[in-house]
Amino acid sequence: MERLGSLHFRLAACVLACAAVGARGAPNARAAAPRTPLARRTLARATAPQPADDWPEPRAAGAPARATAREIASSAALIAGTTVGAGALALPGATAPCGFVPSAAALVVGWALMASSGLLVAEVTAAAARETSSPGVGLLAATELTLGSRAGAVAGAGSALVQLALLSAYTAQGGDDVSRALAAAAGAAGVAAPPPFVGPFAFTAALGGCAALGNGRVLGVVNALLVGALLASFAALLALAAPAVSARGLLEPRDWGRAVDAFPICVLALVFHNVVPAVTRALRGEASAIRLAVLGGSAVPLVMFLLWDGAVLGAAPIGGADGPPAVVDALAPLRALGERGGLAGSAVPAFSIAAVGTSYLGFCIGQHDVLVDAMRVTRGDRAAELGAYALVLGPPLALACALPGVFAPALDVAGTFGVSTLYALLPAALAWTQRSRSQPRAPSEPLLPGGRGALLAVGGAALAVVVEGALDQAGLL
């Protein structure tokens, strides 16, 4: 635990320093909002259905929905695909100390929080898009437009923190997966295994190079292959783990107090908010369509995670037959499943690398687009775009090499401080401000019902996560 706490503090210091540097270079969102984003080849925007008209004008009251069933289904699939990723790897390890029943409750509460805040992200970006007559307004631009430039700078720093922490976690875990594969191959060939830093470098070169040098078609093919491998390995692991599930494994332990510690990972595993502005634009701000896409698309990963958590935790306890699981690291339950050998021995590393790869690719491209906009890079300037990719890939690679065990602490830091603040507390504050103003171009109905009570619930829950995490890091809990 002392080593884990030390990693938390060292990671937080590095991430905050990089975030501060990123915030100083953040663009003026009010000026940048009308620009056509340079991110048209990102996975999210390539997947989301394209709008058929200029969306910012609000539809007349009582007019029929303009979004088709196919557009809603496509947007829901985008949200589901964005959510399922590397967070699933850390779930069993984070929830094992509290047991399946408390962890299932934490997942459901976390889903309610993230689905509600996802609706708020759609609401505030839609209102900002109508106010600026531009459909390409994201959360950071909406923040500066609504709360001012200082708030926009703080939000930019928070975004940099989340992206850096997550990319560092993905690079560390992906590099570890590659290192294990190389070590196994070297052992089979009777040669010495390569040094540990080779894994993170190889992982970054493969997927980071694909993002930097590949076109939209190449990225689509690579992402489709990773998603296919993710789903196939997930189904295989679920089928392999299910026969070992017992009632005792599902019902014991039940430590509700430790469910609070697992909650940030549950929240992080259910994040999809970076694609909500694209979904809002694709559905042209249609309230009912956005609700269906957000709630339906995010409910699919919730069911998958509940099944996954139950299959892993419901099997024999990691620490033995007596007492709660003795989890040594965040991936101990997953590794224990892989140690069964056979198909499980192949499915576990495949699931890990596919889950990390899909998340890494999407966040890498998304962070590159933010940085390109901040640097005011001219479209088609390949040298400048590749330089931006070097800035995106370099710091996470350095952190992953310096802190090999950064995966779990980085996810915890991102979930506790970054995700809770940027994707829950901030949207609630923006919605409160926008609803309090007299804005004739604002949406006719809020996307999240419940009035100010619902906003207080979302913001209060997010603030509670941040405060609890800060007190825990300070050793006061």
UniProtKB/TrEMBL annotation:
It holds the Pfam family Trp_Tyr_perm. The chain crosses the membrane at residues 197-214, 221-242, 262-283, 290-308, 343-365, 386-407, 413-432. One of its GO terms (molecular function) is aromatic amino acid transmembrane transporter activity. It comes from the Eukaryota. Gene3D superfamilies: Amino acid/polyamine transporter I. Keywords: Amino-acid transport, Cell inner membrane, Cell membrane, Membrane, Signal, Transmembrane, Transmembrane helix, Transport. Residues 1-25 form the signal peptide. Its main location: membrane. Residues 30-63 are annotated as: Disordered. It is a multi-pass membrane protein. It is found in: Cell inner membrane. Residues 30-49 have a biased composition (Low complexity). One of its GO terms (cellular component) is plasma membrane. GO terms for biological process: amino acid transmembrane transport. This is Tyrosine-specific transport protein. It comes from Diacronema lutheri. The lineage of its organism: Eukaryota, Haptista, Haptophyta, Pavlovophyceae, Pavlovales.
